[in-house]
Design brief:
Blueprint lengths: L17 E3 L10 H25 L3 H65 L6 H7 L13 E10 L4 E3 L10 H14 L1 E10 L5 E5 L2 H18 L5 E7 L17 E6 L2 E4 L1 E2 L2 H10 L7 E7 L6 H6 L5 E6 L10 E5 L4 E4 L9 E4 L4 H19 L3 E2 L3 E2 L1 H4 L10 H4 L10 E6 L5 E5 L12 E4 L6 H15 L5 E7 L15 E6 L6 H23 L6 H6 L9 E7 L1 H7 L4 H14 L1 E7 L16 E5 L4 H8 L13 E5 L5 E6 L36 H6 L3 H9 L20 H4 L3 E4 L3 E4 H6 L3 E9 L4 E8 L7 E4 L6 H15 L5 E7 L14 E6 L3 H25 L4 H9 L9 E7 L1 H7 L3 H12 L4 E7 L7 H4 L4 E5 L11 H5 L8 E4 L4 E4 L13 H16 L16 H7 L9 E3 L5 E2 L9 E5 L5 H15 L5 E6 L14 E5 L2 H16 L9 H6 L7 E6 L2 H4 L11 H4 L2 H4 L1 E8 ...
Helix pairs in contact: 1-2, 2-4, 3-8, 5-8, 12-15, 22-25
Length: 1285
Amino acid sequence: MTIQGATRPETSEWRDGLVLDEPPPLPPSEGAAGLVANAIPMLGSLGSVAYVATAQPGRGGLIASGMFLVSSVGFVVANGWRQRSQRVETAHRSRSRYFAYLDHLRGVVRAAAAEQRAVSETARPDPTALAVLLAVDTGPWPDTEEDGLVARFGRADGPAALSVRRASSGPLADADLLLVAAADRFVATHAVLADLPVEVRLDEVRAVEVLGPGPEARAVVRAVVAGLCFGYAPSRLRVVVAADAARVAEWEWAKWLPHTAGMPSDAVGPVRLISASEDSVTQWLDAEPPRPGRHTVLVWDRDGEPDADLEASLGGAAVTVLAVGTSPVGGRRGLALRVGPEGGRLEATGRSDLPALFRPDRLTVAEAEAVARRLAGRQRRAAGPGRTGAGALDAPTLLGLGDVDRLDLPALWAPRPRASRLRATLGTAPDAAPVVLDLKQPAEGGSGPHGLLIGATGSGKSELLRTLVLSLVAQHGPDVLNLVLVDFKGGATFAGLSELPHVSALITNLAAELTLVERMEAALTGEIVRRQELLRAAGNLTSIVDYDAQRGDRDPLPDLLVICDEFSELLTARPELVDLFVQIGRVGRSLGIHLLLASQRLEEGRLRGLDSHLSYRIGLRTFSASESRAVLGVPDAAELPSVPGVGYLKTGPTEMERFTAAYVSGPVSRPRRAVPVASVLPFTAAPVVVAAPAVADAAAEQDRPALLDAVAVAMAGRGRPAHRVWLPPLDLPASLDALLPDLAVVPGVGLTSVDARARGVLRVPVGLLDRPLEQRRDTLVLDLAGAGGHVGIVGGPRSGRSTLAKTLVCSLALTATPREVQVYVLDFGGGSFGDLADLPHVSGVATRGQGDVVARVVAEVVGILRSREEHFRAHGIADIDSYRLRRAAGDPGDGYGDVVLVVDGWGTVRSDFEALEPVLQDLAGRGLTYGVHLVATAARWLDFRTQLKDLLGTRVELRLGDPSESEIDRRLATSVPSGRPGRGLATTRHHLLGALPRIDGGTDPATTADGVADLVARVRAGWGAAPAPRLRLLPELVTVDELGAQVPGDPRVLLGLDETRLGPVGPDLRTEPHLYLFGESGSGKTTVLRTYAAQVLRRKAPEQAQLVLIDPRRALLGEVPAEYLTGYWTTGAQIADEVSALAAYLQTRLPGPDVTPEQLRARSWWRGPDVFVLVDDYDLVTGGSGTPLAPLVPLLGQAGDVGLHLVLARRSGGAARALYDPVIQTLRDCAAPGLVLSGSPDEGALVGSVRPQQRVPGRGTLVARSVGTQVVQIAVASIERPAAG
């Protein structure tokens, strides 16, 4: 320790103990080293003396040498004296400084001791002085910060609060023993203080036995009980006395103690808990349930131990037995005090903190009764208005509710002048006067409009908020005051208040779903805007005060109190929300919006200018003095006791009032009625019994509802309901019957919504749209009639996009007839649309595994689009609106209305049906003009190509896997909750929730399948007419006879049916003389050749057509009549020879120089049949030496001139290499039609961009200039299925 100036430090600086600086050591002695250091110069001088004596013989030399010798000896002596004097002086100065240092510390220690003694005597006064103190102090019990129960038993020497100890010392050999002894005496003198109170925490011991002679022991116990009752209110301490019949009179004085008042009552008030019967004591302990924070002291002045029942009642941790006499209390011994006339001794096992010897406190019966009577007077003053019993607040009386069982709401809510409005009673002041908070602005005489409430955990913050709400609703009807209650966590603070008609919004559990914070911000902003518009509409009024004064017949505009609990954590999660609070603080006073922010802690840095708008502050117990200063400007709130509800109300720069809040969460007490008596009754410790009406027992009182709940139930449904600022979040999806409430069966229309049809059959409701800023919820309607006719629905996995698409289809079925709308579905989302196949409006559903059906659906819609284009041109129809009007007037048109193609899973189109993507994109580009709509769902917007995405005029974005990919608003997309199918964003940037495709009122997504089945059945039953045209599929078996019957006289070689029109298709020999095809084994290659041959035979006579069959496997043996068969070649040598001869013959048909133009045009320069060369299994014909058909290659390009037709079939395996074969390459160069039957897609593109794929036998893709690319089903020449190829 070092002394800093002359100012004595405050004792608070030494709370961690005082450590004495180490005494300075003695100055070191030079010893022999100093002597040698002084002798060395003298030795040098002796040498000089010898030199002089020898160098100058005679008297002069002797004199000179003598002088040198004297001066040397004198120097040594003088230097030694000087060093000794300096060492003594240094030691003296060190001792003086250290003694001054100890004297300074002595003042510090004595001041600390005086402070310690003053604090001890103030907290635990001498029992003999209690009566005098109570005569001076007329206020209620002081609040204490102690969590336990501390009792004073007497005085003893005790350790000083400011501990003093020496610092670690150095070697003892160097120490100044005088200073060391002084430091030791200082430590020993100030380590112990005399006559300090001996204190014991009773909540830490189960029993205290005061042993000794009876009168001495009772005097000590009386002093202990009196001190406890002086220091702790009845809400913290209950005293029960059990004494033998012979000794109970010794405790008669305790009847005046408020702490002995029990819950049962007799004729003179609460029963006194003083009895000679153990049974009575047991009943008292069991009758009243334990209260948090209250301890029971049982004074046991009986012989023997408690019985088993009493032991069971004493089992609680909040009971301490204070035994009197010489008999220990069984196994409950915790602390023993042996007292006698001279003093006392404490006996406590394992308690080193208590002194062994002490001087016990004593009180006589008269002194104890004086203290008890003074405490009774304190109890009456503390009860005051609004209090009953042992200090408990009578909340109904305090809040002006009266008899809660018979609330007179018209009287409570009677109109009152504005000056007396918005006054909330919080509780009572120390003098029992009500503490009232006026929420009006200072211009109206109030302390509002905005405030701050801070209270640590357990300080009663939530209870105070409930008290505030109850006080306000008890005085104001819902047409005068509305409430917005916000709880960032859980919602327990405002539990049960939703029934109040005053509540405009109850917003809870924001911490679990932070997305609701933005919704709350929008709702409160919308309320600000709504109130501003009301004032503007009323004549540009400036405030709600003017509105009330000039309201007239207009609707009332109530004041709005916004209470936000745990706002500090709310701002931590959403710091930008402080701007909304600042806005309310700025404009709230004129709009009648009041803001109360509550939290456990206060971080001023987050308020960012909000604190200047908070005109009143409420501080309950805080965690630290700094928080108290931040709220109240003083540290007092940090020093409040741990009793819930105690706090300070600050309404101005200097006005601060302490209060105890009313308790409204306890059971409602029945009104007390006076019991008439005939005479004055004695007040004794024993119960006073007179005939009186029966009183409800305590158990019945405990079963009554809480005061707050009882008032909320009584007010539910009464008065004008508050304007709804906050609608429930979009949690449960609605069903379609909730969006179309007027569903009914209309003749000729079926089950439909008349209102929806009046708005337009293509305006379909599909969900709910949340508009918190406008404080309403709208129906999400998709308009397919205009530019938004194509719909894009995008959402991540399990986001509900397939369900929303189903909802759209079902909504169309409920607003339009099957004549007006037809729906085709490509179901790539897992088969969820299968249950809609029986809907009258659905023409067809294709799944991912039905590749042919998928292609057929697309072809059907494309065919409808093409035929409608032709229909519009043929009938002069300008646009789709005109077409719809014609259809409504009875014109059948082309047999279709608006056609909707639903593609559920666009990513599958790109991955598995790549060839269909450009077709669908072209359909989207042209479709809206002709009433063809595309509804596509995808997992990402990137699944759509840019050209198609631009065509999707109506977009619905559900929860995305990566919100940063949002096309609507990336920030808002992050706020769409996950795990909530159907939640998403509309293009208006509002949150939406898709409806369920059902009309049975169900909202459980798990039972959607049952709801869809019910909807389909009801729609079918309501329609009762022909459904929409069904999807026509390519048959797996078509005969040549059926083709001829469809188009008799067609000059083409009809091979089968095309997928688009389901009409005959085949090459025209005049423009497409050749054909080549690929297919795997069993795909129908030979069937194609057989059908081709059959069609040639049907259309031409033998003199017009001759066939050459190259058939290595002899699959066509016997298929062609002899009169048509020119050659049937099977071996390689034969084929080479015959083909060369055939080529030579055909060379003769080439036109010569003498052929005229007329002959060329009529092809009349030669006569004879056309030659049809049909090659099966071309891969078996070719060999290592080349193709035997090479002689025909030069003639293929002049087939029309020489009458040559080549039909070539090859296996698809290895076909990619065969494309470079001279014959096939020439056919490709001549743009001959190509047919790709079933095969492996790994072979790549074989004809154009067409790859093989697995198909049924006889089905393939025909690529020709005349028909484009078409899926066809090859016909067979007989009814039997085609043979394996």
